[in-house]
Design brief:
The chain is of the alpha/beta class. The chain folds into 2 domains: 191 residues, Isopropylmalate Dehydrogenase; 139 residues, Isopropylmalate Dehydrogenase, CATH 3.40.718.10. Helix content is 40%, strand content 19%. The strands form 2 sheets. A 10-stranded mixed sheet has the order 2-1-3-12-11-4-5-10-8-9, with helices on both faces. Strands 6-7 form a two-stranded antiparallel sheet. Helix 6 links the parallel strand 8 and strand 9. Helix 5 crosses helix 6.
Amino acid sequence: MMRIAVIGGDGIGPEVTGAGMKVLEAAATEDSALDLEFTEFPWGCEHYLEHGRMMAEDGLETLRGFDAIYLGAVGWPTVPDHVSLWNLLIPIRRTFDQYANIRPARLLRGVESPLKNPGALDVTVVRENTEGEYSDSGGRLFTGTPNELAIQDSVFTRRGLERIIRHAFTLAGTRRGRVTGATKSNGISITMPFFDEVFREIAQEYPGVEASLMHADALAARLVLDPEGFDVVVGSNLLGDILSEVTAATAGAIGIAPSANLNPAGEHPSLFEPIHGSAPDIAGRGVANPAGAIWAGAMMLEHAGHETTAARIVEALEATLESGVKTRDLGGEATMDEVTDAVVERLRNAV
């Protein structure tokens, strides 16, 4: 039994996780080794507005008992973004040491890239997920006066850098054998040279993997101009976050891209989600793109050791998009339910 905690969250989040669960259940019926049990939790901004908390007081302890967490999206216009993020997703990432954020981007069949010549676009961004620029260290002084100031510290540890960079090199060894480190050591004079030093040290452990460092601004440009030239990109929390949005956009749309927040040692549950936001403007209209959530569900199964079933889901998704059944953000006319049902039907017919 694979026990999955489902946090639909806000906006289109519950809609796309509902679609994802439908696809996962269809795939599981053909995998005798896979038995799924979903438990849904109504946490998010609506919960915050009613209870003053983004999740239940014992939410983290409750989640600890699950094998995986499946998240839709978090955020709503009436709740500040730093409140919603720092009171739900970031506590989950840190409590369960989900230090490796994996964000694959490739051009799926049936999807057009906005780039004229995307080539064989297939890039995975490996983002440090628990420290770096997303720290809660700092403060504000002289609030409301002309002398008001804000200071926020970045926290880079050797342990944190070594393990995320090593994860990227290990992943590259299973792919095309190239790792690009995203740095900004020409402008950020302490933390980024430290990143560079650790990157070069770890690279020595992987002689069969081609390694290079590139300034993040130049890297963002190259990911647009020549995405085919990259394999695995590893970056800090902030740089990895930004660059993975670039790669998702070059692959066609933010609505396609999945994300895995991994605790690679398996000591705690990992979390899987699409990278898109809660999109309040289209919530409840049934037009959201479920592809990112469906692909994230496949990543969840792959992480749990069900690689064949995960691959079947991605193939059914690609075949659906290739047939022209796709949502408006991809140039189609299909509703979310129509895309979901088409993926489910292909899973059943393939067997």
